[in-house]
Amino acid sequence: MPRCPEGLFWSQNREQPTVPDLGPRPLQRLPPTLVLATLSAAFGSAFQYGYNIAVVNTPHQVFKSFYNETYFERHGTFMDGKALLLLWSCTVSMFPLGGLLGSLVVGLLVDRCGRKGTLLINNIFAILPAILMGVSKVAQAFELIIFSRVLVGVCAGISYSALPMYLGELAPKNLRGTLGTMTEVFVIIGVLLAQIFSLQAVLGNATGWPVLLALTGVPALIQLLSLPFFPESPRYTLIQRGDEETARQALGRLRGRAADVEAEMEDMRAEEREERAAGRLSVLSLFTFRALRWQLITILALMAGQQLSGINAINYYADTIYVSAGVEPAHSQYITVGAGIVNIVMTIISAVTVERLGRRPLLLAGYGICGFACLVLTLALLFQSTVPELSYLSVICIFAYISGHSIGPSPVPSVVRMEIFLQSSRPAALTVDGAVHWLTNFIVGLVFPSVQEAIGAYSFLVFAGLCLLTAVYTYVVIPETKGRTFVEINHIFAKRNGVEIPEIKEEVTEVGPHIPSVPAKETAL
């Protein structure tokens, strides 16, 4: 049996530090620094992702009119329908393309600049496009909107990977799931506020849309002014910078109790010994490293399942289904806002229960609800021309699907993907994960309209099958990570990877300066 590099996984024979699991503590008893750091980081980062996904959907006719009027001012004639559609498709698709670019550089940034430093630098890619989009109408340049969509995409791509890493390393293990789901909670808050602000009666009109687009810079500015007052990730500070005193001070602010600080310091020292023995992993070596094979497959499966489970199809079909149920086209935007409220309520429920129920039950329940909703929706769409009352069932299926996706497939993968890798491999793993996320997002947006035109409502049968496959993979492969340390989780995966776990001899702790692991070194594997 292949041997794992000594130190990468916890030995069965090694005495582990005893850390009492006190269960999730009430939010009001948490140190204010932990709560405020979470709010500052999540609002200034994840919010950008959600807001810029949804902000161009409802008022798309307003933006198209601006494109056409600008073209007329330049050339004395209007664009034909195909050219306008192509230009608008380019505008929409620039966001996931920017997200892909951002995901490719995030691993380098979090290693060089730290988790908090990366989030602060990332605000450039929110504030600059906010200014450009805000002046695009005055400048009569729709190109500024298209270019800015690339920049806010880069911002979303970086924050999508860096934020879960920062929050997961700030959190104690008994609250890691709750803080990890904050990424998705603030994504949904961004979506909901974008839906509200883009209503025609608010800012989704010919005079208000520049402000609508420029609002994306406000959360970034708030984060830029507030996040510097909160600590860097203690794990990054200790393991990669080698600054034990600063890491201890950061933990003191984040935990509040001396017993918690000492227990977690010992846990981080143990993880650092693993890191020093294993070396740093690059993206390329991650694909050939047997000791992380199933972890890599797991994040790819979760990300593919999240993006290919039908959420984009539901969003695509929603307005059509609302109209078929008798909702006036002008009023369907309010139904969309109602769906957004359901989305955020269910995501908050997931955040509250993830540390009590665990990750696996929420994933299994979520994919089960989504798969069943897709099956029923297929039948309702096929027969609603014969039985008009089935159109109401279609609306119910959409809300049921959104509820199921918000319970598990949307928020939980961001927790699991951060937990199943150690510090040395986490940046490379999240780079791969982010790239897959944005690539599948881009491909689905490009391919789905053609698939829907070819097979119509039967496309939801495909999504039901993918939900089933992801649920089966979750049940068979993914362990429950609730309440476990990062080293313990990797120990579980070591058995599935078929690597021999060597016995690690205890190191003698000597008084003296802390020797950090060398971040630039890569494992020979």
TrEMBL record:
Chief localization: membrane
SUPFAM superfamilies: MFS general substrate transporter
Transmembrane helix keyword on record: yes
Topology with respect to the bilayer: Multi-pass membrane protein
Membrane-crossing segments per the record: 34-51, 85-110, 119-139, 145-167, 179-203, 209-230, 294-314, 334-354, 361-384, 455-478
An annotated GO cellular component: plasma membrane
A Gene Ontology molecular function term of the record: D-glucose transmembrane transporter activity
CDD domains associated with the record: MFS_GLUT_Class2
One BP term from GO: D-glucose import
Entry's localization field: Membrane
Coiled coil spans: 251-278
Location of the Major facilitator superfamily (MFS) profile domain: 38-482
Presence of keyword DNA-binding: no
UniProt keywords, alphabetically: Coiled coil, Membrane, Transmembrane, Transmembrane helix, Transport
Alphabetical list of NCBIfam families matching this protein: SP
Family: Belongs to the major facilitator superfamily. Sugar transporter (TC 2.A.1.1) family.
Protein name, per record: Solute carrier family 2 member 7
Protein species of origin: Ictidomys tridecemlineatus (Thirteen-lined ground squirrel)
Source species taxonomy: Eukaryota, Metazoa, Chordata, Craniata, Vertebrata
Gene it is expressed from: SLC2A7
